[in-house]
Structure formats: C-alpha cells, structure tokens
UniProtKB/TrEMBL annotation:
The active site is at D185 (proton acceptor). The gene is LOC113864755. Belongs to the spermidine/spermine synthase family. SUPFAM superfamilies: S-adenosyl-L-methionine-dependent methyltransferases (SSF53335). Keywords: Polyamine biosynthesis, Transferase. It comes from the Eukaryota. This is thermospermine synthase. Its EC number is 2.5.1.79.
Amino acid sequence: MGEAPEVFYINGFPKFGHETEQHLTDDPNHDCSWYEEVIDDDLKWSFALNSVLHRGISDYQEIALLDTKRFGKALVIDGKMQSAEIDEFIYHECLIHPPLLCHPNPKTLFIMGGGEGSAAREALKHKSMERVIMCDIDQEVVNFCRKHLTVNREAFAHKKLDLVINDAKAELEKRKQKFDIIVGDLADPVQGGPCYQLYTKSFYENILKPKLNANGIFVTQAGPAGILTHTEVFTSIYNTIKQVFKYVMAYTTHVPSFADTWGWVMASDQPLFIGAKEMDKRINARINGELLYLTGDWFQSSATMNKTLSTSLQNETHVYTEENARFVPGHGVAYRL
C-alpha cells in the first residue's frame, strides 16, 4: 500500500465543517491529476485532467476552469459542474430553443446568468431575434469564459448581444421594457450561493412575470431530475412556477458531464405545445445552422416522465420561498465565509 495521494484544493479553502466540494488529487499510479466532485454526502465522482486553466474566488462564487480528458474544457462553480465543452450543446439547446420555437415570433430575450455565453450563442441563431440581453452577476466568470471558451467568441462580439454585469433581479426591476422570452440560466440553488432567490415564487410573480410580453415565455434550468435526485429541487421549482403561470411544462434529458438526468421548466400564460412536426418546421425555417440535439419528436418525448417522476411532480406541495428554500448538496462562498 502506497501513501495516500496529496489533495490540492482548487481555491485554497481549508475544510469548513463539511468536506470541500471540489479538489484535485495527484494519482501516483497514473500520469495525471483528478478532479473530484461531491454529488452527495455519500457519493462522489471524479475525472482525469490535462490541466487547470483557472482557479479563483470572486465576490460571489468559487470558480474553476478545467481541461478534462473526457469532457474537454469544463466550467465548475461552487463545486458543481456547470458546462463541459464536449456536451454543453445538450444543455443549452434544451434551455434555449424550446421556448423560442414555441413562441410565434420571438424578438427580445433576457438571460439571467449565462456568463459563459453559450445560451446567448444559441439564442442568436434565431433569425427573428433582434436583441439578446445577458445579465450575469459575476464579471470574473464572464471575463475568463470570454478568454478561454473560444466557441463563444462570435456570440460575445455579436452586435445584437447586450452584456450586463448586475444582479438579474435588480436588473429586471429597473428595466421598463418587456421581453418575449426570459431565460433562467442560473447556477443550481446551493446554501450560500447567489442564485437561490431567483427560484422563489415572489420573484417569479412580482418581478419576472411582469417583464414578459402578453404571449411571453419563461424557461429555467431546474436542477437534477434523475430517479434518485429529482426531489432535491426539480419538483419544487416546477410546483412553484405552477403557482404563477397558467401553462407549465417540465422536460428532461441525460447530460453526461452532469452525471445525471437534467430538468428544465417552461411556462407561459399561453399554450406551449406546438407538436413535433410544427417544431421541426420552425427549426428549419427559423434557425441559422444545424442543431445537434433537439428535434420535434425528441422534445415531445422529453416531456413524458416515468411513473416515479410523474407521481412526484403531481404530488409536490412545496413552494420555493426565501424562508423555505430547497438546495442541492454543496455550499456557496457566503456559507463558507
């Protein structure tokens, strides 16, 4: 038995009562380092690294940009995988295109979060789009994504993109205009993180919905939606949005770099479902370039839940509030400091 591998914390944090959610391990038996993420108290997963491109802590979040052997460049915030180069198209196509395709003629879009630029990139593929506002709270995240994620350089430089560094809640409150689409491309709600207030009923009802046009559509990422993880926040987010909008649709798919099935929730006061054939027609007519994942048939199937998830969604009673929030495992900077 050799000595245990030395542990290097990505941002230099010691342990704060809980095991730090992210660290690097040098493996003496292999010519590489490994990144380890805590999925839950009794579950971790790890993947081999080529290098660490960036480590740091902003005013809001722990940040790491890793070059992984399996998934390419990977953005990790507060110990949670946010996006990986090899499969981020799955997450971002599922987030952006369903609401834009269900809308009759989307022209204006507001992204809450989305600092890496991928959500804006997908939105700007739509020929009808006139203005995309991307509002991220963290200048440091935006800066190093702009520098390192070359796939999004055109999006960051696009003349239709308006990049704003601000809290999305404050930004929506002060703006007078309304939008066709509002997107929640936010980090998962963790204790001490900057985002959980943007999953609450009061935010949806009092701030977000009044900023949608009459036929506007809201969509948000809604966290893990696997058979064992969907009750962490997914069902609660769905039920909370149901209290505010007339038509609400949940849909899911597997994202390999997230090590789970993932969920999204789309909502409007106008009917959302347009049918698989109509969606395919709109994809061909409205979008510049070819989508890699989304089709009409797939989207229709993605909203069909297995028995366990369907029952959980129907029976969920929790409403997300600031005083009674749910969180995924892990902790943000504010919790640790």
